[in-house]
Amino acid sequence: MKSTQELLKERTERVHKAIALEKTDRTPVIMMMDSFCARHMGVKLADFVSSLQASNKVMLDSAKDLGDFDGTNSAFAAGILFPLMFMTKVKLPGRELPDDTLWQLDERENITTDDYDTILNKGWAPFQIDYLKNRLGINLDKLFGELADTNQMVKNFEDAGYMVYSPLVTITVNEYLSGGRSMPRFIKDLYKIPDKVEAVLDVIQKETMDTLRQQIRATNSKMVFLAPSRGASEFFTPKLWERFVWKYIKGAADVIIEEGAVVNLHMDANWERDLDCFRSFPKGRAVFESDAATDIYKIKAALGDRMCIKGDVPATKLALGTPDEVYGYCTKLIKDMGAGFILTSGCSIPPNAKVENVKAMIAAGTGK
Questions:
Q1: Beta-carbon contacts of residue 346 (< 8 Å; ≥ 6 apart)
Q2: d(Cα 36, Cα 47) in Å, to the nearest integer?
Q3: Pair 324, 340: CB distance under 8 Å
Q4: Are 83 and 132 in contact (CB under 8 A)?
């Protein structure tokens, strides 16, 4: 019987071979799981999100019960951190919501067009900290205090034999404004004051990328999770997408790759129109992670010779399907995708996924 450290080494090497488009002994399975683990372990979501450490323990207990898979996307549930990424409040179970209700972004116009001038004059970081503390009422000291335990939470998984796929997470800068302005008002800004919006995004991008370089070097991260989901092709005209989305995805991905890490592109929604743009990244240095809204066979045709594909078992199938249906879907994907494929759910496993369906997904990957 292999030790947990032998399993961790074996699983980590398997995943990195898949990313490098090399043949593996079996298809790697990475679990993108958070709220599902609470339901799986019979823990109320209010208790699950009470701290990052609480979610880490529940997720690890859930992983041990699910058994033999390669790793988890993250070491804790990020729900309470969403204001730092989307510049808007989040409603939490046990606080604004009933105890066992999934957390929700409370998106509305919190950033005004006058704030654009403040960002241009004072910079992004001073504005962001003041905005989060004083306008959204976020307790940053508490959140950063919990994040200081990230290494220990990662180690908890590694000690059990599971890799944590992407401990370092960032988003594309348009997400900050589309969340803080609200998506409809942000889109209107792109038509009414495009030059000012671009100037603001350039300021945010410069500061964010400087920080990201420091984080990659400090943590020696081999993988960075980049989430540009609200920038999907289906939400923008080609002209707006190239100017206000692709420019910043490309810039962020280039920084990550220059620093020696692989970029995991978390691509919720439909990106089919612009798939060819992603061929510009070096071979074997990026992962295209789909939630099934983009046809994974079109991703394979456009990018399969350039980057690893990760996905895309639909949430509906995990929640409403049968184990046989899930197993059949996954085994077909594994056969059709070939080398350079990582099996996972389409975005997070939903909280109401059936445990037997999640185990069927794992079984399809591991062959057990």
A1: 290, 291, 292, 293, 311, 312, 313, 314, 315
A2: 13
A3: no
A4: yes
% pLDDT > 70, the chain: 100
CA angle, 236 as apex, 262 and 299 as ends, to 5°?
45
| H or E element, residue 142 | helix 140-147
pLDDT value, residue 44 = 97
Q: Write down the pLDDT at residue 6.
A: 97
Q: What is the CATH number of the domain that holds 161?
A: 3.20.20.210
Residue 15 and residue 71: Cα distance in Å, rounded?
Answer: 9
Q: How far apart are CA 264 and CA 18, in angstroms?
A: 13
Residue pair 26/363 in contact by the 8 Å Cβ criterion: no
Angle 195-198-204 from CA coordinates, rounded to 5°: 145
Say how far apart CA 284 and CA 222 lie, in whole Å.
Answer: 13
In DSSP terms, 225 is beta-bridged to 169, 264
Rounded Cα–Cα distance for residues 224 and 237 (Å)? 28
Cα-only R_g, the chain: 20
Residue 225 domain boundaries: 4-366
**How do residues 288-320 score in pLDDT, each as one tens digit?**
999 999 999 999 999 999 999 999 999 999 999
Between CA 165 and CA 158 the distance in angstroms is 11
C-alpha to C-alpha distances, 249 to 183, 259, 278, nearest whole angstrom: 18, 16, 10
Total structural domains in the chain? 1
Give the residues of the chain that fall short of pLDDT 70.
none
For residue 94, the Cα-to-chain-centroid distance in whole angstroms is 25
Give the strand pairing for 89-91 and 104-106.
antiparallel
